[in-house]
Write a structure and sequence with these properties.
Elements lengths: L5 H10 L11 H5 L13 H13 L5 H6 L8 H14 L2 E5 L7 E5 L3 H16 L4 H11 L4 H13 L1
Antiparallel strand pairs: 1-2
Length: 161
């Protein structure tokens, strides 16, 4: 068990100024070059489902392959095709044809999962917590049921940073 209370432990870390929102994202996000902040259009739950299939595949997929990437019950081909058109209009996916396949479109994400998660987390922090990383992280810690082991791992990540 930790010798000090959960809130006090994290409050002292946040007060030390060592925590950034990037801890909420993967290590890959921190390694990506800093880019100009561009507002991405929010995705609906159904659009996120399509994006998750594409992100998990890590290569371009046809509509049929995207449908196959869903758990049962699988959505209709036309439903997925419609969401792909919407995602393309939002700038989240692109399509291309392969010469050998003729008319078949292959879809791939235009943004990484890490980039999207980073923007969503920052938008939540800015909108609901007045851009305060301390308030945002304190909220998460107080409202999540973290084990002592998870708390120790978080402290270790912060102290080794």
């Amino acid at each position: 068990m930790l010798n000090i209370g959960r809130f006090e432990a994290f409050s002292s870390i946040f007060l030390a100024g060592k925590v950034e929102a990037s801890y909420l994202c993967s290590e890959q996000t921190k390694q990506q070059p800093t880019m100009e902040k561009k507002t991405l259009k929010p995705l609906t739950r159904a659009e996120m489902d399509v994006m998750n299939v594409l992100w998990n595949a890590q290569h371009a997929l046809t509509v049929s392959e995207i449908v196959d990437g869903y758990a049962e019950p699988k959505p209709a081909y036309t439903t997925v095709a419609t969401f792909l058109k919407i995602l393309e209009a939002k700038g989240s996916v692109e399509h291309r044809k392969k010469e050998e396949t003729g008319r078949t479109f292959y879809y791939s994400p235009m943004l990484s999962r890490e980039k999207y998660v980073s923007q969503v987390v920052n938008d939540v922090k800015d909108t609901l917590f007045g851009s305060s990383t301390k308030k945002f992280c304190s909220f998460l810690i107080q409202n999540e049921e973290l084990t002592d082991e998870e708390l120790k791992e978080l402290l270790s990540l912060i102290q080794n940073e």
